[in-house]
Design the sequence.
């Protein structure tokens, strides 16, 4: 049976008991076996409305379920734990995210695997590294341990690429002066990719803001950026808020 990895999170109620109950139900209601579970990690909440400290864990399972059928089971387990639809990053009793499904890559309107944010989220990588350090990300090409290690250097460097110099400078100011950035300002550095990549090496995260829109500007294409750190931020409604959340998740 395919080997899969799940990320568990929550910050409402008895989260440790909720994890235990959800994994027991998974083994009972689906053709699945829970083969390994990480210790529980305490992590800082990400997002302005996410509430208090989270508990996070990772689980290895083997299942005969196809990916979308497994997703249905996981979402049902979230509902049974008391989760209701709400604002992104809101407090919740249980998150169950499918991180890896064997070595498959899946791009479906309901499901993307590997989880598109798993490579820069410490609250995913920290527990996952305890049970799957040598598992390789099928897109980024690095192991879980290697992905986590990239996020440990300080200051953690976020580089901005694409769009226009004016927009990158505006976004850098917005990130650096936001009230909720103060707590992470000493741990992160925001740089301009086009100005500094040759001298400074590869950043931890390289956020692409979209194609150049100024006349005669040299356009930076997303696919031309280094594979491991690149992150498409061009379709987000509020790039500053999105990248603040990315930085918080990456810093742990």
Sequence:
């Amino acid at each position: 049976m395919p080997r899969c990895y799940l990320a568990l999170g929550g910050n409402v109620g008895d989260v440790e008991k909720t994890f235990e109950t959800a994994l027991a139900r998974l083994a009972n209601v689906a053709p699945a076996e829970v083969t390994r579970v990480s210790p529980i990690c305490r992590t800082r909440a990400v997002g302005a409305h996410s509430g208090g400290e989270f508990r996070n864990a990772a689980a290895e399972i083997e299942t005969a379920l196809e990916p979308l059928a497994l997703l249905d089971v996981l979402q049902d387990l979230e509902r049974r734990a008391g989760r209701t639809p709400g604002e992104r990053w809101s407090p919740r009793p249980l998150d169950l995210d499918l991180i890896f499904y064997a070595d498959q890559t899946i791009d479906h309107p309901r499901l993307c695997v590997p989880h598109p944010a798993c490579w820069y989220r410490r609250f995913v990588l920290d527990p996952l590294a305890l049970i799957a350090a040598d598992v390789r990300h099928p897109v980024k090409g690095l192991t879980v341990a290697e992905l986590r290690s990239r996020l440990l250097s300080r200051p953690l460097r976020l580089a901005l690429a694409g769009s226009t110099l004016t927009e990158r400078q505006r976004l850098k100011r917005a990130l650096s002066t936001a009230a909720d950035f103060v707590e992470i300002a000493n741990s992160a550095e925001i740089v301009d990719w086009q100005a500094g990549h040759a001298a400074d090496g590869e950043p931890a995260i390289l956020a692409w803001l979209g194609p150049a829109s100024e006349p005669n500007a040299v356009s930076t294409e997303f696919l031309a950026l280094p594979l491991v750190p690149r992150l498409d931020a061009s379709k987000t409604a509020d790039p500053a808020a999105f990248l603040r959340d990315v930085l918080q998740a990456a810093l742990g």
